[in-house]
Design a protein that fits this description.
Layout lengths: L2 H14 L20 H14 L3 H49 L3
Helix pairs in contact: 1-2, 2-3
């Protein structure tokens, strides 16, 4: 195993560790899929290193991917909201400043 492969396996296992112990007790569906051999090697090595099944390792990877996609959507929505808020402040600032000038303390 090359140093790069060893590094990839460690990174993969570390990245999935928070997602592997959810203990999904719901129904499971058997699925036959084809993946590139290098990914299968990575998944199998990670599963072996963490004591999980290949299925659990792939499920953890999917859970992580879904969580990251949800977070990216949330981050983008917050960014858009922030941009809108900034535009609103820029548009209303002159009027606000004028009102503050006229305010008697």
């Amino acid at each position: 195993m090359s140093e790069r492969e060893s590094y990839q396996r460690k990174i993969f296992a570390d990245a999935l560790s928070p997602y592997g112990s959810s203990g999904s007790s719901g129904p499971h569906t058997k699925l036959s899929i084809s993946l590139p051999s290098d990914l299968i090697d990575l998944v199998r090595a990670s599963a072996e290193a963490t004591g999980q099944t290949v299925s659990a390792t792939i499920a953890a990877s999917l859970r992580r991917t879904l969580e990251e996609a949800e977070q990216a959507n949330l981050d983008r929505a917050l960014e858009l909201d922030s941009e809108w808020n900034l535009e609103w402040v820029k548009a209303t600032w002159p009027m606000t400043a004028k009102l503050w000038e006229e305010l008697e303390w």
